[in-house]
Specification:
Layout (H helix, E strand, L loop, with lengths): L1 E8 L2 E6 L3 E6 L2 H8 L5 E5 H5 L5 H10 L2 E4 L5 H9 L4 E4 L4 E2 L2 E2 L1 H11 L4 E8 L2 E4 L4 E6 H8 L5 E6 L11 H8 L5 E5 L5 H9 L2 E5 L1 H4 L6
Length: 224
């Protein structure tokens, strides 16, 4: 399944390269709402909240009431997750909050599942050079994506794996890595990071993996 991505920064839709350099910027929100409205799920990320330099909460609320969204970016507490669900999100994405003092935080994951319900939770494994990155991808841990998935599987409905090394570069995502991770977990697996073609999306679907796509859509390589 194709999951279109909407990344927010400074009150606009943006696309970044590897989480740092801004490559594209749009403010025609309703155009994209209309184009994404036929999809069963859209990924909505508040990048300002993710890096701790602001918030696009009003836009998140507006879009989450118009589109079926899984929402992430700066959701680092269970209370914030609950509030995001109340805004209209179908699911919330936890990432940095799953790591404490360099280790996987099982206590937080369990409490989130007990409070919000695992069916409402997507756990993110955003990886740089094979290791989980947190705090807006600005800090790389020693945690491997496979280890995070194995330990946290009981507490969520899906894992979001982002291959930071290819994010925004339109060079394709390494399918060998995704295949290995697919074997690690029985939960829904969602992949992101450089996907550039329908052929890649089909290849991912063939192994039971959904595809989050941003840059290729906004540059017109994949039509929606």
């Amino acid at each position: 399944m194709l999951i279109p991505s909407i990344d927010l920064m400074g009150g606009k839709i943006v696309q970044l390269v590897q989480g740092h350099r801004k490559a594209l910027e749009f403010d025609n929100f309703q155009n994209w709402v209309g184009r994404f409205s036929k999809y069963p799920l859209v990924q909505l990320i508040d990048l300002d909240a993710a890096i701790g330099c602001g918030s696009n909460a009003d836009i998140v609320k507006e879009l989450a009431t118009q589109l079926p969204c899984q929402v992430g970016g700066g959701i680092r507490s269970i209370a914030t997750g609950a509030q995001t669900l109340k805004l209209g999100a179908r699911r919330v994405i936890f990432g940095s909050s799953l790591v404490r003092d360099g280790a996987i935080d099982l206590v937080f994951a369990r409490e989130a599942a007990e409070t919000l319900g695992p069916e409402k939770l997507v756990f993110a494994a955003d990886c740089h050079n094979g290791h989980v990155a947190i705090n807006g991808w600005r800090e790389t841990t020693n945690i491997l994506a496979a280890d995070l998935m194995r330990q946290l599987e009981p507490f969520c409905s899906a894992f979001l794996y982002t291959h930071i090394d290819t994010e925004g570069l339109l060079q394709g995502i390494p399918l060998d890595i995704i295949r290995r991770l697919r074997r690690v977990t029985s939960r829904k697996l969602i992949a992101a990071g450089g996907i550039r073609s329908r052929e890649e999306i089909d290849a991912l679907q063939a192994i039971g993996v959904d595809a989050v796509v941003g840059m290729a859509i906004y540059q017109g390589l994949i039509t929606v």
